[in-house]
Design goal:
30% strand, 221 residues, alpha+beta, 22% helix, 5 helices
């Protein structure tokens, strides 16, 4: 049974009534955009690395559960080798691997982008395949070892026991939202300080539909 509880996220901003009344633009819309952005950042972090306690279980958490044992680097990843990433690819089932993709921090992507197919990984052609349509509508992401690469700043960068990369079929991770994000204002709560409160809230949850479709590369130094 999969637990798909949702959790409430909120952001609150207090603005002086003078600023609200004197602003030469629609301050409510402007604040709404900022509050929505802040909500999105917090939700994104939990959907990637959330612990599952009072927050969603992140897609990189429990990825190495079930029949998959996390792949260990066995040392520093200052000069990463391609073998461990190949091990990660082949730690999931063939059907999963064919539709799999990578998720990692920008710094990890920057490191493996330098890997080559020659001896020692320092000579020959680059293994990273830049997208020819990146930035275009319906454009495709870059690829590494034949699979698409996505980055998220909430993923861990190099460090002891850090999850450096997650690989597999991310469609098996389920995100549940209850309604859309809402922005509300109130003039009564801060009556004594003559302020207007703007609040954004959103209810979101996430969890793995089943384990075994994702696995991780862990830096055990």
């Amino acid at each position: 049974r999969v637990n798909l509880n949702v959790f409430k996220y909120g952001q609150l901003v207090r603005v002086s009534s003078e600023l609200v009344n004197d602003a030469a633009f629609d301050i409510a819309s402007w604040l709404g955009g900022d509050i929505g952005y802040a909500l999105g950042r917090v939700v994104d972090a939990d959907l990637v690395v959330g612990t599952g306690t009072n927050e969603p279980t992140g897609m990189t958490i429990l990825a190495g559960a079930g029949t998959n044992a996390p792949i260990k680097t066995g040392g520093s990843l200052i000069a990463p080798t391609v073998e461990k990433f190949i091990d990660l690819q082949y730690s999931v089932a063939d059907s999963v691997r064919q539709r799999g993709s990578w998720l990692m921090h920008d710094s990890t992507a920057g490191s493996i982008r330098k890997l080559r197919d020659g001896a020692g990984g320092t000579i020959g052609a680059f293994l990273w395949e830049p997208s020819l349509t990146a930035g275009l509508q319906s454009g495709q992401p870059d690829r590494f070892l034949g699979n698409p690469v996505y980055t998220d700043t909430n993923c861990a960068s190099a460090g002891s026991n850090a999850i450096l990369a997650t690989f597999g079929d991310f469609s098996e991770y389920v995100i549940r939202t209850v309604g859309n994000p809402t922005i509300e204002s109130d003039t009564s709560r801060y009556f004594d300080t003559d302020e207007v409160g703007y609040r954004g809230k959103w209810r979101v949850g996430g969890n793995h539909r089943q384990v075994g479709y994702l696995n991780t590369l862990v830096q055990n130094v």
